[in-house]
Amino acid sequence: AEELKEKAIDLLKQGLFDEAEELVKKAKLAAKPTPAYLLQKAKNLALNAEESFKQERFEESIQLWKKSIEEYERAKEAARERGDEELIKDIELAQQKIMVNIENAKIAIDNREMLKLVSKANEYVERGNQLFSSNNYDEALKSYEEARRLFKSALNIAEKRGFEAEKIREGLESVEESIEHVKLKKGESLIKVDLDDPKAEEKLYSA
Fold this sequence. Notes:
By secondary structure, this protein is mainly α. It is 86% helix and 0% strand.
């Protein structure tokens, strides 16, 4: 780049302005990273992203793919400055593929979150069942209601992404039934309170 600048100065001294301007443009291009260099950086980032995806580090893979797209964009700009239309098309195709990969990573994140919610919901159902067996209806109700909330969150993700949701719906229906059942049992237990208890009516109507 420096050599080209010196030649441009010599041409200016000779009054060859057009030739000097052309050399200045070439000098500017020479001072910038080449498309090949930028492409290699973009490809390396994309490869690292794929490796992260395989290891189920989905958030990390998304960040790496986004950085890869940025490097591809820089390479595309360098190719545009050099008038390499064929290379620009190849870069745009690579960027489109990466965008698909990013969306797949986002889907994988949602699937992982959905499964996590379902697992947690089942834990609350099991806890609710144990509490119900111990006639601890208030705490059982809280556990069932938390399970219902988690199942609903999981179902929202499943419906948004088109995941298989039948088992989630079944779990939600089951916990809804458990909630109604525990409320009924709680009511029955309160009806059986000692009517001589001065707080009997209060207990009954607070069920």
